[in-house]
Each structure stands twice: as C-alpha cells, then as structure tokens.
Design goal:
The protein is of the alpha+beta class. The chain starts with 5 loop residues before the first helix and ends in an 8-residue tail after the last helix. It has helices at residues 6-13, 16-27, 32-39, 43-55, 108-116, 120-166, 170-181, 187-194, 198-210; strands at residues 59-64, 72-77, 81-88, 91-98. Among the domains are: 6-104, Arc Repressor Mutant, subunit A (Orthogonal Bundle), CATH 1.10.10.10; 167-210.
C-alpha cells in the first residue's frame, strides 16, 4: 500500500474517537474489548473504527496466545509521522512527514528476558530523565520555530504590500506570491497549485521577467 496522503489522513483522524483509540494504542497494545471499556464505546463501534485505521495502515492487528482459549486479536500503532499546518493572515502551508522508525513488536521471549533483568527501576529512572530532556528540547525548538514564523509573517506582509503596489493584474500577483513563498518552482507543480495551465504560467513568468520582477533566486 502506498503511503497515506494528507487529505486521507486528516479525514481519518478528524474523527475524535479514532484519535482516542490512537492515544491508547501508542501507550500500550489493546484488545478491542479493552478499548471498548476504556472509552465507554460499544465494541461494535470500536471494531468499525479499528477497521478504518487498519486499512490506512495506521494500526496493525496481531494474534496473541491466550491461556484460557484460542489466540486473541490485539492492536498496535504502526506509523511514525508528523503533520505540520501553519496558518496566518499572510500564509498557509501544510506538510506531512513520515519518520523512518521501524515498529518493533517484542516477542514473548524478549518480554520474559526483560522481566528477569536486573536494575529495571534504575533503568526506568534513566529513561524518564531522557524523556524529560527530549521534551524540554522539543519545547525550545517549537519556541524557536514560532519566532521564525513570526519573522516570516512580517516579511510576507511587506512583500505582499509591495506586490499589490507593483502589479495590477491578478494572475501576475498570484504567480509572484507563489514564487516568493514556495520551494518547488517546477512548471508542472506551479500549474497544479495555482490552478492555471502551464502555458498561462509561462506567459505570466515572461511578463514578470520583462517587468524586472522575476527574481526567483532564494
């Protein structure tokens, strides 16, 4: 299956129940009955949501041996990704990033070996400290990113005001605004994102060049 696209992903996780299920599964593997009890939702409804998540490869079902009967199906989270959406009066951007982190399912033997290991309490304390440090660093990165976005917003506001002053034609303004704010400057992508034919984009680019406004170097 191909990687899920942003529109499909947002449609799936836009459902609050599915987000609740994912919050549970990233903390610990769950059986459908456990999720039903934890979320106070019927098991039938839980199974419908799990089916949607599994078809999108956001979760995986695995059978686990049971001491009281046949193997039981439980669910684990499988994807590692980040969604970034920036919106302000001067800009709107969206990005879906997949992280190459292999999902490891611990075998029963590994679990037993872990139980027999020594100094687990000390190890747990060490990992708790590591997690706290990483969370602090992520907070600092987020703050720095906010500062950079504020600088970008300020620059875009002035740039857009200049474009409004220099360009009377709407299509010229649209293309020029794309050029100053987007990274992919290929003709095919510009045509798709601007909802213009490639020939129309080329005509606008030629006119902008004649006016001395085609400065694409970044």
């Amino acid at each position: 299956m191909e990687q899920i696209d942003l529109d499909t992903l947002l449609a799936i996780i836009g459902n609050p129940t599915r987000r609740q299920i994912l919050r549970k599964l990233v903390k610990e593997d769950h059986y459908p009955l456990q999720l039903s009890k934890e979320l106070s939702i019927s098991q039938q409804a839980i199974m419908k949501h799990l089916k949607v998540l599994e078809e999108a490869e956001l979760v995986k079902s695995i059978f686990r041996k049971s001491d009281t009967g046949p193997p039981r199906k439980f669910y684990v989270a499988t994807q590692s990704l980040t969604i970034v959406i920036d919106m302000s009066p001067e800009q709107f951007s969206e990005d879906l990033r997949f992280h190459d982190i292999e999902q490891v399912i611990q075998a029963e033997a590994d679990t037993q070996a872990l139980r027999n290991a020594e100094n687990l309490r000390i190890k747990l304390t060490e990992f708790m400290g590591m997690i706290a440090t990483v969370n602090s660093e992520l907070d600092n990165i987020a703050q720095e990113r906010d500062n950079l976005l504020a600088r970008k917003e300020d620059a875009l506001r002035y740039a857009n005001n200049i474009i409004d002053t220099l360009c009377e034609d709407y299509e010229h303004r649209k293309v020029l605004r794309y050029l100053i704010n987007e990274d992919d400057l290929s003709l095919a992508v510009m045509s798709e994102r601007l909802n213009m034919r490639e020939s129309e984009v080329e005509d606008v680019l030629r006119n902008l060049e004649k006016q001395g406004l085609l400065m694409i170097r970044k």
